[in-house]
Design goal:
The complex is a heterodimer of chains A (523) and B (466). By secondary structure, chain A is of the alpha/beta class. Chain A folds into 3 domains: 76 residues, Elongation Factor Tu (Ef-tu), domain 3; 229 residues, P-loop containing nucleotide triphosphate hydrolases (Rossmann fold); 159 residues, Up-down Bundle (Lysin). In chain A, the strands form 4 sheets. In chain A, strands 8, 9, 13, 14, 15, 16, 17, 18, 19 and 20 form a 10-stranded mixed beta sheet that branches. In chain A, strands 1-2-5-4-3-6 form a 6-stranded antiparallel barrel. In chain A, helix 4 packs across helix 5. The longest helix of chain A is centred in the last third of the chain and has 24 residues. The radius of gyration of chain A is 27 Å and the shape is elongated. Chain B has 466 residues and is α/β, with parallel strands linked by helices. Chain B has 3 domains: 74 residues, Beta Barrel (Thrombin, subunit H); 268 residues, Rossmann fold (3-Layer(aba) Sandwich); 95 residues, Orthogonal Bundle (Bovine Mitochondrial F1-ATPase, ATP Synthase Beta Chain, Chain D, domain3), CATH 1.10.1140.10. In chain B, a hairpin with a 2-residue loop joins strand 4 and strand 5. In chain B, 32% of the residues lie in helices and 21% in strands. Chain B contains 13 helices and 18 strands. The chains are: A alpha/beta (523), B alpha/beta (466). Chains A and B meet through helix 6, strand 17 and helix 9 of A and strand 1, helix 3, helix 5 and helix 12 of B.
Chain lengths: 523, 466
Amino acid sequence: MMENLIKKEVGYVTKVNSYLLSIKGLPSARINDIIVDEEGRKAVVHSLLPGSIEALFLDNKPASPGIEFFIDSEGSRIHIGEHLKGKVLNALGEVVSDNGIGKRYKGNFSEKLSFDKKARDIDSRSFIDRQLVTGFALVDITLPIGKGQRELIYGPIHSGKNDFLRDVAINQKELQNICIYAAIGKPVNFTSGLIKVLEENDAMDNTIIVSALSDESAPMISIAPSTAFLIAEHFCNQGKDVVLILDDLGIHAKYLREIALLSNQFPGRESYPGDMFYRHASLMERSGSFNDKQGNGTITLLPVLETDMEGFTNMIPTNLMGSTDGHLLFSKEIHAEGFKPAISVLQSVTRVGHATHNKIQRELSTSIINILSEYPRQQEYSRFGTQLSSHARDILKRGRIISELMNQKNIGFLSLTTQILLLALVFTRFFEPEDRDLDFIGFERENIIKTLEEGKSLAGAREMTSSKDLGFSDLLIELEKGINELEVATGKNKDSSSSSNIVKEKDKEPVEDDKDIGVAEEE
Amino acid sequence: MTKKDKELRFLGRVKSITGQIVRISCETDYRPAIRELLLAEDDHDTCMEVYSYSDDHTINALLLSPVDSVSRYTRVVTTGGQISIPVGKGVLGRVMNLYGQPQDEKGIIKARELRSIYTEADDTDKLRSSELRIQETGIKVIDFFTPLPRGGKLGIIGGAGVGKTVLLTELMHNIQQEKNTISIFAGIGERIREGHELWKILEDSGLIEKTAMIMGNVNENAAVRFRVAWAASALAEYFRDDGNKDVLFFVDNMFRFAQAGGELSTLLDNIPSEFGYQPTLQTEVAQFENRLKSTADRYITSVQTIYVPSDELTNPVVTTTIPHLDAAVVLSRDVAQEGRLPAIDPFRSQSSIVTKEDLGEMHYVAVTKATELLNQFNRLNRIVSIVGEEELSVENRKIYRRAQQIINYMTQPFFSAEIHTGRSGVFVKREELVKDVCDIVTGNFEDLPPEKFKFIGTIKGAGIEK
């Protein structure tokens, strides 16, 4: 390591204020250069003043005056490649834990560790037109995320964000997308818990964790996102689809604020540095969907923001919403009601994801959102105890069933095909009988899913879900062919003869009303 | 760099670098003017701009290149000029950055001349304006409630994710480019993805041929983003004064322009004003807006998006910009959540030309009547949400229904959103629009459910009959 140092230039520490060092010497230093002392401890050059330079010490133990620093002429390099899969790195890209897996060593790409790499311009980009499957029907159908999209994961503590992100990370294995999880300023328990869950689910092989623990120095935590991006960009340039999770940017902003204030920068709004928006926005611009000249890869970014505030008015939430392509809003209330993922559909936004849907998905999505947007209002009305119109009753039942079908608390990954067929069922006669409600789903969910996945009479419908030009109404007709098989699969435990009679009489009304809420159709 | 042909003179050396601010010590007798463009001697891609002097030989310059491109003692030369961009026909059909460098892989931009982005236009007839005409946009809710005067400024005001950029893109698509009209798009501090999408949409529709795009996305530093607005207005002034063209000038986003100014201000240690904004906000916005001026002979019609942080319309950037606008549409989150697109709230939107003289008798009367209906609707809506529509008097039920029909009629499928919604866009002429609203207001469609009017073009086009 020492042979890379420019030995002819030396600087020595004159002042120490926490991790902020004043160094005399090193005349050719540039901002963001990595400097190293005799023991190999590192610092990043922060600003260049007439008589001295200011550097941020990356080591945990305090520095003292007199220590000599040299410029690392190689610019401290990070070695990126397949060998990193399954490993845990620190913010400098050094392997800190390989947990006994991921020992394979394929090639060795070395990249200059830079903290301020500029995002590629419009001539490197391509349209976002492929969907990133999360395995959650709620997201994949009503709030689809495209490969290369940036979707903010936003919500208060204990609203199920962590669970959701872990599952998304695990599900990427099956989809063969590389997942890079940057745990930024997180407690040790959080990161070790994350590693454990990924290992237990056999997903570590496919994941690289960049960990900047909360007990590391603030400068170390502040560079973690850009290091994670360097790794993501490497795989993206090889044409891979990368999912990058930055957890969490609110914490990251607080460390940036700390450093700025400590180094005497003028405080801006909420005392954050004046260029706070730019710092995060320019970082997030590095994700996206890239064209063939860049290798056709994508970086899908899921930045996380945890907040105690229920509102959106604070500086960091507003900034992040203004620089992402949508947000999933997690709610404590929904989480407490036992839903997973606990996302408020109506308060969440996806700006580009719908463009990755085919016609069937798009129409199904619109039909479901139409019901879900009316559902809460009808729930309010129904509390008055007045007699409900058949339309209202229908919305209430369908809203209830849709919410329950999208609740994946006890089931894991659902493929797109299964998600589509499962939710399309709501628009068939399958759920018409009065006794087919929440309890029924509770008992029969697995049978339904299994039949949708394997049932012979549903093969046509399964194939149709990926069709480019057929519409939702075509799918409903095809799905009709499988209803009998579903009836058989779910009817085993029931006294079917007696219940079906009652059903026919009672449910005449809602059936007639069907067209009112209808199915979104394109002319 | 753009000034390569000019003679470069040695000026001095870098003394210190903090953030984007470089202090240079002059070592010759030459003192460059404010805004003069400086380069690093050994790397002409490294640009700096003189911002101020802290003493008689120390320059504070803005570093326009990455912060790690200079070190202390880097030798600095002066170009003797300012940041310049190519002007002329060659810029049409092209995408460029602040320095006029191509961003579209189509090779070098051929231009008649290079012009400083700070060129002040000859202002002899600054206070004279041209005859008022209405600029049709084909978007019903804008043309009806908040019509845009030709040569005027339209603001699209709204919070995150309510559809500002989509609306701007639709306007770029819709505003029929008449003879001798060109478009300029200034992308300031917005997402690269959006810039890319817009560029491709313009290419697909062929509109790019008469459009020049100049981009300073949010991956650029504050100094660059701020100056892109200047560069774009220099282009507009060239086409207006020397190119003899009418100009459609699109800005996405005015808030990001002001924000970039604010970032620079903090970096320069200026004392912040309210909410942490720069003390010079008023001046900066006015300087930019006043360059986008129509003359007696030529129009500059401008459409600007204005982001509203936290949906707070009293934000200083918003309130500073609004007085410069002739028409402003306010996008509302509530309307967006109800699925009505474009999510324009007609109550908070305004236009200076909603007068009988400017709109003509028929349109003016229709606007007045429609606004009155909507006002009554808001009042009735509260009652309806409690006791239901059935409980309204016959007269009120009529009002309620007609207002609902108008509200739904004002939704519109967009050309620019076709890939997202699967609905084909429509352009509606003002003449038909006014006639349609008159028909609804007078109750000609009384018996039809209001849902029928959702996402249609004209009533006739949707096949609705009385």
